[in-house]
Specification:
heterotrimer; B: about 775 residues; alpha+beta; Aldehyde Oxidoreductase, domain 4; 4 domains; 17 helices; about 25% helix; globular; C: about 160 residues; 2 domains; five-stranded mixed sheet
């Protein structure tokens, strides 16, 4: 592990200023991802700035009927909050589907959406990876791809040696729920505060796979706002994985069904939590029977690009995510009718 | 001169534990209190004030020539005390359990990814790691050999059964990795008619992926240099004396100067039968004159021990229309990886156990172990049998389907029993209750039809399945495994037992070198001594090389063999004590026995204190099970095995056929253990073995790409959690084996063998899919 | 750097802690408390579970600096000199300990679960136990006797 300095500033503004002036500085909140990456050599900062106590650990009601979640609220606290469980079951379910009790007790609201991919090649510093070491290439192409992307990858048939190639997925369950809830991210940066719609927080690899989000260096998430859902809306999160718990998603679905509207976000399929806008559009105003949902997902997945791999590749995700969406929407619709 | 080294913090002490509990009772572990207090020291907990940390530099390539190694930059790092390469190995450069083909540190060529190349000792583990990263190794990278069948030059499925596979000309795929070629062992079994015919024939090819032992306590130990020029090694291992032999050979030191003590072992399951950091830590300690601790992290652990052999198997079963097995032909390939390790024994078990506990008149088996540039494979719980059981039990189900018979009926119709002849020509001369094991399973109640709680559905707490597309399946499988070492191996254990009176109370001390790895052998040793010597207090001496070999903690053999040795040593001690008592009392020895701390006879109760006074009675002896013999190399015939273990499983699964998710609803198991020395520990072995078999069936596999491991972490190599393991129903049978101490039968491996195939059969029944490869993954079940 | 915190009720101060060390490393190598185990050091096994300000966490993923001023509880703090904690005793009685490497983490996780459940008015049900302990891998037992141990502990703790 590369040596680094450790700073414990007094407040968020000082933390932001400290990171902003040191190009190789990082924020440390819950630590569940960063501490691992320090050990693995994936993260090699000169300065680690502890922000765990510097943002709010409160969940408060907002004037519009939504909730503001302080960035220091832990995943356990958030999943246990009565208002979250009653009003945003999709979020509580997504949180509980992620990691384990011990990790949810550490992981924070601000940190969880910023966790980095679990691509094994990103985590193995002995292999080329454009995300970890820009320009070095992508080892995942043709490798171990069951946790990799089928949507939004940098090219239809990725070239493992190209500097833009990256087929990693975003691993957070919570982020998929936040995407479907149209959450807003409150950020404090060197230039002041700003608000970022959650859907715009994460990026596709584009020509720079090393950047996961649109946050600038020194920008710190201070809170996440949840707008109210329409009256009568139902929501749920479903996750398909290789064992019963404590594993990342092969695919996952966050869904909200309200009167005349279906909202869908997908996990485990792309470099970011994937809002299935095309499918939502296809379903708008129409009936939400299984066939319609299946058709909508076909529309969503027209650009899907299965990746070959050592254990048969990840083409199975295309039907798998469709089936998961169909079953989730079916249950929510039946609940709504009942 | 024996110069005792200083003792590290965490060096094992004598275990006492709660008093009382002879054989057949649930006596508690003597190390249990230490373990729950967090005071039991594992290899990674050992500590000395001035110790250094050792780390290993490993090859990133599966196959390469080493042009040069420059250790200069590493030596220049402040805090580094030594950097070693193969040039610094004073004795033999290679070691191995059966063949000495594995370099201590790579010599000129590396043959697998992760092969140790150089060592560093430094004052902080991070310093050692940083220094290792600065060693410059210039590799000429070669293309690896990665397919076991191709490595032997065999066509993929040769015309079986005619003759031995002809090795075609050498290609890149079969380039020789070792001077004698890529064949480690070829075992043949030939019985009956070489060209049999049958009414109904099923032919299938099966594959089993590479499983990891995934013991939780990583490889670790501490080497302490001694004043006599030797070394004391505290290490978590499975067989101290075979380690000692190999370490002595590499260090060029006699056994008196290489003294081993067992450190706390955090699980083993076969993965500690080969050396890992043993020689490395000793080399660094002897070079620096300081104690050196080595402790792998999880990633290194995946590279630091052998794995379960992946297997590719083609089976042909022929039967009469009534369901009598006529013949079995099998071709079995085990990928041994870069070095031999236990491959010869794995081939031995795979070949001789490879058609299961069934009586078949005509058998033709070819079982091969091959070298490749994949990770070395060796011992893991139930080896050889675990892989073949997936094939032979799948074949029994396929045959039953072809015959329109019930799968359990077909098994019972062809099952072995006492007096049956195995395919090695051996007559099964102890109980073989295969039919009863199956019938008892059938008679057990079935779990409730529909789960009442979504959390019990496939997908568990992920809120995944709500009952749609869920189908239930039930599957059965039987295991058949040789217990202890086979094929003429001189398989023995040594026990030293002392009886004395301390503070007015009789105390027995048992000293063996048998590795306690978590299974509870230390409890069994105490129980036997209590029963044989009639005392409550039994002390277990630390396991070390100051007493003779106990053989390996593997092959389900320690309760049998070391248990037998302890029993025999106790009997010898008892004989002496009773002789003294006879002299004192004038009674014939035959009328006396030991009970409750006294010599008793009719109307006599003479406290041991009065018999022994201040004396201690001690006996040390070696004990052997009856000898086995090598099998005929052309026919596979011979008295190869001393004992067999049998268990059977019934698995009930719910499969979400839309999403490919499997929920194992219940596992039921029946096993004949001969005599349950500690019933609670026997149940623990059955439950733990069942979990490992279930894991292989549905999730566990080390994935290899061009010879490189893709998933060396617990993030990507998944083992069952408490949510994946269902409740179990267990019935333990006790049909004594007349040849074994107390009639007992080795327990540990059998349940690991039958559980996976039962789960696979159940999934197959639920889905109607053929499923010829494990582990089964979601995408194999969704038809996508 | 200097680290000051409370471990098992006693104030602790250690100097020369390297910033990159985890709380687990500090406990094991600098404070002489090796009871918390290092099976994966990646938050994937639960064997290093300790209480941090009363909440169970994976100590391998807590940077040493983040333990500053906090209260830590480890397996070494559960028993008294004379007697075991009921959770410890239940693990022994139920036969839930084999190699024991997962045991310290499981004991802390179980204590947390049972304490919370009883405070909420009822011992934990099977499904809750499985959910709560899914972060603690065990390779020896197949978990059944761990489940038994948790229920036994809850029963005994409820009776106190």
């Amino acid at each position: 592990m590369k040596p680094f300095a450790f700073a414990r500033p007094a407040d968020a503004a000082e933390a932001v200023a400290t990171v902003a002036t040191e190009p190789r500085a990082v924020f440390l909140a819950g630590g569940t991802n960063l501490v691992d990456h320090l050990k693995l050599g994936v993260a090699r900062p000169d300065l680690v700035v502890d922000v765990r106590r510097l943002t709010s650990r409160e969940i408060t009601d907002t004037a519009d009927g939504g909730l503001r979640i302080g960035a220091a609220v832990t995943n356990s606290e958030l999943a246990a909050d009565r208002r979250v469980r009653e009003r945003y079951p999709v979020l509580a379910q997504a949180l509980l589907a992620g990691a384990t009790g011990q990790l949810r007790n550490l992981a924070t609201t601000g940190g969880n959406p910023l966790q980095r991919t679990r691509c094994v090649y990103f985590q193995d510093v002995s292999t080329p990876c454009n995300k970890r070491e820009p320009g070095s290439g992508c080892s995942a192409v043709g490798g171990y791809t069951r946790y990799h992307a089928i949507l939004g990858t940098s090219a239809a048939l990725p070239d493992p040696t190209a500097p833009e190639t990256c087929i990693a997925t975003h691993p957070s369950d919570m982020a998929v729920a936040l995407a479907v809830l149209d959450a807003q991210v409150q950020v404090l940066g060197p230039a002041g505060a700003r608000t970022i719609p959650f859907a715009e927080l994460h990026r596709l690899p584009g020509d720079d796979p090393s950047r996961d989000t649109v946050l600038e260096h020194g920008e710190l998430i201070t809170a996440i706002d949840l707008p109210p859902l329409p009256a009568g809306a139902r929501s749920a999160y479903r996750k398909v994985r290789d064992r019963a718990s404590y594993a990342f998603a092969l695919v996952s679905v966050a869904a909200v069904v309200a009167d005349g509207e279906v909202r869908l976000a997908l996990g485990g399929v792309a470099h970011k939590p994937w809002r299935a806008s095309r499918a939502e559009e296809a379903l708008r105003g129409g009936p939400v029977a299984d066939d319609a949902v299946r058709h909508a997902m076909d529309v969503e997945l027209t650009t899907a690009q299965p990746q070959p791999g050592v254990d048969g590749g990840n083409g199975f995700k295309i039907p798998l995510v469709t089936r998961t969406v169909v079953a989730t929407v079916r249950d929510l619709t039946q609940e709504t009718q009942a | 001169m024996s110069a005792p080294a200083r003792t590290p913090a965490g060096a094992p002490g004598h275990l006492t534990g709660p008093a009382g509990g002879g054989i057949g009772t649930d006596a508690q572990r003597p190390d249990g209190t230490l373990k729950v207090r967090g005071e039991f020291a594992y290899g990674s907990d050992l500590w000395m004030e001035d110790m250094l940390w050792g780390v290993t530099l490993r090859s990133p390539h599966p196959y390469a020539r080493i042009r040069s190694i420059d250790v200069g930059p590493a030596l220049a790092v402040p805090g580094v005390h030594a950097v070693l390469t193969s040039d610094d190995v004073p004795g033999a450069k290679a070691y191995g359990l059966e063949l000495a083909d594995q370099p201590v540190l790579a010599v000129d060529v590396v043959r697998y990814q992760g092969e140790p190349v150089a060592l560093v000792a430094a004052d902080h583990p991070e310093t050692a790691r940083a220094a290792a990263a600065r060693i410059v190794v210039d590799y000429e990278v070669w293309e690896p050999v990665t397919d076991a069948i191709a490595a032997l030059g065999h066509p993929r499925w040769n015309a079986v059964h005619e003759d031995d596979a002809e090795v075609t000309e050498l290609s890149r795929e079969s380039a020789h990795l070792h001077p004698e070629g890529n064949l480690v062992r070829h075992l043949k079994v030939r019985t009956g008619d070489p060209s049999p015919t049958a009414d109904v024939v099923v032919v299938n090819t099966y594959e089993v992926g590479m499983q990891d032992q995934a013991f939780l306590g990583p490889e670790s130990g501490l080497a302490v240099p001694a004043e006599d020029g030797g070394v004391e090694l505290y290490v978590a291992t499975q067989w101290l004396h075979v380690d000692q032999r190999q370490i002595c050979s590499a260090l060029g030191l006699p056994p008196e100067q290489v003294r081993l003590t067992l450190a706390g072992v955090g699980g083993a399951f076969g993965g500690r039968e080969d050396l890992s950091m043993h020689v490395h830590a000793c080399l660094l300690a002897l070079r620096t004159g300081r104690p050196v601790k080595m402790s792998y992290n999880r990633e290194e652990s995946f590279f630091g021990h052998v794995h379960r052999h992946p297997a590719t198997m083609r089976y042909e079963h022929g039967a009469t229309r009534d369901g009598d097995l006529v013949y079995v032909k099998a071709e079995i390939y085990f990928d041994g990886g870069a070095y031999a390790s236990s491959t010869p024994a794995v081939v031995g078990n795979g070949g001789t156990m490879g058609i299961g506990p069934y009586v078949v008149p005509n058998v033709h088996v070819d079982c091969y172990g091959a070298y490749t540039n994949n990770p070395p494979c060796g011992a893991m719980r139930g080896f050889g049998s675990v892989q073949t059981a997936f094939a032979y039990e799948s074949q029994m189900d396929a045959l039953a389907a072809a015959l329109g018979m019930d799968p359990v009926e077909l098994r019972c119709r062809n099952a072995m029993e006492q007096g049956s002849t195995a395919i090695t020509g051996q007559v099964i001369d102890s109980p073989a209750p295969v039919v009863e094991l199956l019938r008892r399973l059938e008679a057990m109640p079935m779990p409730d039809a529909a789960p009442d709680d979504l959390r019990h559905m496939p997908g568990g707490v992920s809120n995944t399945t709500h009952g749609e597309g869920v189908r239930r399946g039930v599957g059965y499988a039987v295991s058949y495994k040789n217990v202890a070492f086979s094929e003429g191996f001189d398989d023995y254990s040594t026990a030293r037992v002392r009886l004395e009176v301390v503070g007015g109370e009789p105390v027995a001390t048992v000293h063996t070198a048998a590795a306690e790895v978590g299974q509870g052998l230390v409890t069994v040793e105490q129980q036997i001594a209590r029963t044989e010597l009639g005392v409550d207090r039994v002390v277990v001496h630390p396991k070390d090389t100051q007493v003779g070999s106990a053989g390996s903690t593997s092959a389900s053999r320690q309760t049998y063999v070391t248990g037998g040795a302890v029993k025999a040593a106790c009997e010898a001690v008892r004989g002496q004590v009773l002789a003294r008592a006879a002299e004192l009392t004038g009674r014939p020895v035959g009328e006396l026995r030991l009970f409750d701390g006294a010599v008793v006879g009719e109307g006599l109760e003479l406290p041991l204190a009065e018999v022994l006074g201040d004396d201690a009675v001690e006996e040390t002896l070696e004990w052997r099970h009856r000898p086995t013999e090598a099998i005929d190399p052309e026919t596979g015939q011979g008295f190869a095995h001393v004992q067999y273990a049998f268990s059977a499983h019934r698995a009930v699964v719910d499969v979400d056929t839309e999403l490919g998710l499997v929920k194992v609803v219940e596992m039921a198991c029946t096993q004949d253990v001969g005599k349950a020395i500690n019933p609670q520990a026997v149940i623990g072995q059955i439950q733990g073995g069942t979990a490992q078999g279930l894991g292989l069936a549905v999730m566990e596999e080390i994935l290899i790409r061009d010879g490189k491991v893709q998933n060396p972490s617990f993030t990507d190599y998944l083992i069952p959690t408490i949510l994946d393991m269902p409740p179990m129903r267990i019935e333990v049978l006790e049909y004594a084996d007349p040849h074994a101490p107390y009639g007992l039968r080795g327990v540990g491996e059998a349940p690991n063998i039958s559980s996976g195939p039962a789960v696979l059969a159940a999934i197959r029944q639920a889905t109607g899919l053929p499923l010829t490869r494990v582990p089964v993954r979601p995408e194999h079940l969704t038809g996508t | 750097m200097r680290l000051t915190c409370t471990v098992n009720g006693s104030p602790q101060q250690v100097d020369d802690v390297w910033e990159g060390e985890s709380l687990l490393y500090v406990l094991r190598e600098r404070m002489g408390l090796p009871g918390s185990k290092n099976a994966c050091e990646q938050g994937e096994c639960g064997s290093c579970t300790v209480y941090l300000d009363g909440t169970p966490v994976c100590s391998c993923l807590v940077a040493a600096g983040q333990a500053e001023g906090r209260e830590i509880g480890t397996v070494e703090g559960m028993a008294t000199e004379e007697s075991l904690h009921p959770v410890q005793q239940a693990f022994l009685d139920a036969g839930a300990v084999q190699c024991g490497f997962c045991t310290p983490g499981l004991l802390v996780a179980t204590d947390d679960l049972v304490t919370r459940s009883l405070a909420a008015g009822a011992p934990p049900e099977d499904a809750e136990i499985r959910e709560a302990l899914a972060g603690n891998l065990c390779r020896c037992t197949g978990y059944e006797k761990i489940l038994d141990a948790v229920k036994l502990a809850a029963q005994r703790m409820a009776a106190r």
